[in-house]
Structure formats: C-alpha cells, structure tokens
Amino acid sequence: MMKRIEKGSLLVLAIIVAFNIFFGLGSIPLLDPDEPVYAETAREMIQFNDYLSPRIYNEYWFDKPPMYYWLVAGAMHVFGDGEFAARFPAAMMAFLTVMMLYCSVTKLFSEWAGFWSALVLATSCQFFYLGKAAVTDTTLLFFLTGALLAYIHKKYWLMYICMALATVTKGPIGLVLPGAIIFLHIACTGQWRRILEMHCLRGMVLYLLVAGPWYYLMYQVHGMEFIDTFLGFHNITRFTTPEHPSRVLWWYYFPVIVLGLFPWTGLLLQSIKSAFADCRSEEMQKMIFVQIWWLFVFIFFSISKTKLVSYILPMFPALAIMIGWNIARMQKENYGVRWSWVLGTGIMFLVLTAGWVIGGQQLPEVAFGGIVLGVVTFILGVSIIWALVVYRDINFAAWLHVITGVLTMVIAFSFLLPMVANRFSVKEIVKVYQSKCDQKKPVYVDKFLHPGFMYYSGVPGTEVKPKTTDLTQALNDPQQKYVLVRGLELRRLKNQDQVQNLREVKVIGDIYLLEKY
Predict the structure, then answer these.
(1) Which of 40, 95, 263, 324 is 20 to 30 A from 62 via CA?
(2) Which residues contact 310 (CB under 8 A, 6 or more apart)?
(3) Are 324 and 309 spatial neighbours (Cβ–Cβ below 8 Å)?
(4) Distant-in-sequence, close-in-space partners of 308: CB < 8 Å, separation ≥ 6
C-alpha cells in the first residue's frame, strides 16, 4: 500500500482547502460577541505596546492566553487593521491543520487515506466555519492535533512542544486533553514501555520551558488576581458550573456533530463500525488511538457543565481520519452497492435539506437563500445515491461530497451570512452613531454587542448585562445618554412605553440605537 506523499495530490488538496478556507475571509464584518473580542484585544496590545497582558476596553482581562492575540497583532502589522487580518491567523491554522493531517495519515495508513481524511476535514461545515472566524479554536486545534499525531509517530519532543503551544493558546486544556488521550491509549493497548520512551520528566521540562514563561511573567505582574481569574474562573469554574444553564443537556453535542460534520455525517456510523470490523491487524493499534481520541473529547465536553458548539472541534480530525480511511478502503475493494453509505447519505441530506429551508424561514433576509441551499443539498444528495447505486462509483460519490461542502460554503459566505450580518454585527450602526450622535454623551452598550462597539468605534461605553435590571436603570435614569441594545433585550422590558424622553435614532437588523434626552 502506497504511503508516499504525492505532489499532485498535495497540490490539488492545497488548492481546494485554500479556496474553502480563505474565500470571503474579509467580506463580512466581525460578528458579536466573540470575533471582535480577539480583534480588539490584539489592537490594544499594539496600542499600548504591551504584548504580555491582554486588555479589552482599555482594561486588563485574563480570559485567554495570548497566542491568538499575538497572531492577530502580527497580521495587523502585515495587512492593516480589519476583518481580514483578524481572521487570517485562524484561517492559516485551519489550512495547516488539513495539510498536516494529509501528511500524517498518508504515512500512517496510505496516500488515499490521507487525501480523503484531509478533504473530509476541510469541507466539513464546522471546520470551515471556524476556520473563517476570528477565534482561537483552529489555532488550538492545530497544536492539539500536532501533539496527538506526533505521539502516534513517536516524535515525542515535538509532542511536548505542541502541548506547550496549545497551553499558551487556551490554557491547561492544552496538556489535559492530549495527555489523557495518550494515557488511555497506552493503558488500553498495554504499551507501558512507551512511557519510558517518551522521557516524561525531560519532556515536562521542555513543556514548562515553552509554556511557562508567559504564565510566570503574568503572575509576577498581576499576582493572585491572574491565577484566580484565569485558572479559577475561566477554566475550573467553567468546567464545573454552567455558563449557559439552558445548554446543560446530555445530548447537546449530537446535533452539533450532525451539522458540523456535514456533508460527511452519513458516512460516520459506517466508518466507526469499519474501523473495528475491517481494519487490518497492523493498522489496529493506530485505529484504536483514533477511536480513543474522538470518544474522549466527546465524553469530556459532554461532562463539562459549560457547553459551546466549538468545544468539540478537537474530535473532528479523528472523525475525518476514520471516514477518510474508510473511503480509501472502499475504493480499493470497490464491489457491490454500499447500502449503509446510501442510507446514511439519504437520511442526512434529507435532514439538512429540511434544516436549511426551515432555518431560513426564521430570518426573513435569508428565506430564499435557505430554499436555494436546501434544493442544492437535495440535488447533490440524490446524485450521490445515484453514483453509489447505479454507477457503483466510490470515487465519484466521494467527490460529490466534496462538491457539496464547497458549494455549501460558497452559498453561505456569498449570500446567506452577508444578508444577516447586521443582526450579529454593530459595524453599520456604529457608522450611524459616529455620524449622527453627540460623542460627548455617555453610551450604554448591550453586553452581547460591547466588544464589536469597542472595536468599530474605539469607545469603551458602559456595559449593560442581559437579563438584569441594567437596561431598565439606564433608560429610567434622567441623565442624557445613548443606548445600544438588541431588540431581544428591549422586548424583555416591562412598561417600555412608560420610559420618558426616549428617541429611536436607528434600527439595523434588530439592533437599536436609542437616545435618552
């Protein structure tokens, strides 16, 4: 079985992945609340010429380590301040993760397994969406995936360096997640001698030399406030206490996988089964590691009280490896109709067809676009089934999945997201504030919109927390001011009509700019 990296495959892969990740990168404004946080923090690093202590609203904050802020600050120096620079590091890390996966899986299994694993990852909805977002997730993914792949290739010094860089990206999870997966693999396979081969003590020294300096310097500058806030609240408390109580559901991540892995979701169950039933003996050790990888990530974050869609992204490379390996296996055998693939694709493409159409109806701006995406999904789903049943062509069917992923991305980022961007970004309403409002008056800003308002206006404002009395107090206070608030929060107000001396300056995408005079 060929395990050589092919230049032709590498080039084709690079072109497809680059298009899917970098297309439309700067075409829509930064979406609140997450994207502007990272862009603004990087900007303030440059503004204050302080690359040690992250700031936002001109004040220190200890939410995340600095890796992504550093990368964005570097991109701003190269490309200038803007949406493209804020997103470029995430996109580049996503691109590098895919290329790394191709090279690694090729050497572990085969060139075709590496090629299809990389394409599965690159064209999965959750991966290319987060690859286009100015958030830390793909940067963390790159280092975590690097650490785990380095372990399976027995490149242990590289493994420790990747863990350390993951820790400088997101905190202790950079050590805990790969460390637990590696230990479970050793325990399950009985390869206890590998612990000696890994030079754990010297490896941890290397880990601390890379990851430790920033944490040490932060403690020297900020003392226990940094430890209590960063380690206590943003890591331990978030794991044990729900940040969003409504999301504490045992099944929360199942729909995330269904949508996030689309258009490949229909192949998942068959690939998991084949990884056990059809794996050759010399591949079994590696496939056991892949199974432990995705299962541990899924269980770990399902147990965590705070749940976010992006948390389970680290399991996606493992799922992609299983699906890519399975496609390569079926290509080689290529006999009969793959009914499990047909059934899985039929169900998932019908579910997503309905999902795009029904989801589009929730926002009037994208109702027609949702129908178009639904029709495209349905046609491609039928085409895949036709290729599998009539032509029995595994290769053609797999390429139709790739086309589905690319077209989904193009439609989403060319038509759907631009139409609803003003519902999730304050960029346009900030232009109104700057042109029509008295800048000397104080401004109160909905917490959800606060990072974007700071990024696009440069004005810190006063934060109004949702589901509290903050908004009521701000509107009833006789002091003249401006209030920027989502319609969702405004409609929660009781006795809204009794608020005196309140003028609606502008409404854009259900975001209200009000003046208290």
Answers:
(1) 95
(2) 126, 130, 135, 137
(3) no
(4) none
CA distances from 229 to 35, 237, 238 (A): 21, 10, 11
Contact 291, 275 (CB under 8 A): yes
Q: How is 148-213 classified by DSSP, letter by letter?
A: HHHHHTT-HHHHHHHHHHHHHHHSTHHHHHHHHHHHHHHHHHT-THHHHHTTHHHHHHHHHHHHHH
| Rounded distance between C-alpha atoms, residue 306 and residue 242, angstroms | 4
List, in sequence order, every residue forming a beta bridge with 482; answer none if it has no partner: 443, 515
- The stretch 371-397 carries a mean pLDDT of 95
Pairing of strands 502-508, 462-464: unpaired
CB atoms closer than 10 angstroms to residue 322: 27
The pLDDT of residue 2: 61
What is the number of residues in the chain? Answer: 517
**The pLDDT value given to residue 114:** 97
Cβ neighbours of 246 (radius 10 Å): 7
With a CB cutoff of 8 Å and minimum separation 6, the contacts of 246 are none
Residue bearing tokens 């003392």 = 223
- Distance (Å, whole) CA 483 – CA 293: 47
Q: pLDDT of 109-152, one tens digit each?
A: 999 999 999 999 999 999 999 999 999 999 999 999 999 999 99
**pTM of the model as a whole:** 0.94
Which H/E stretch holds residue 481?
Answer: strand 481-486
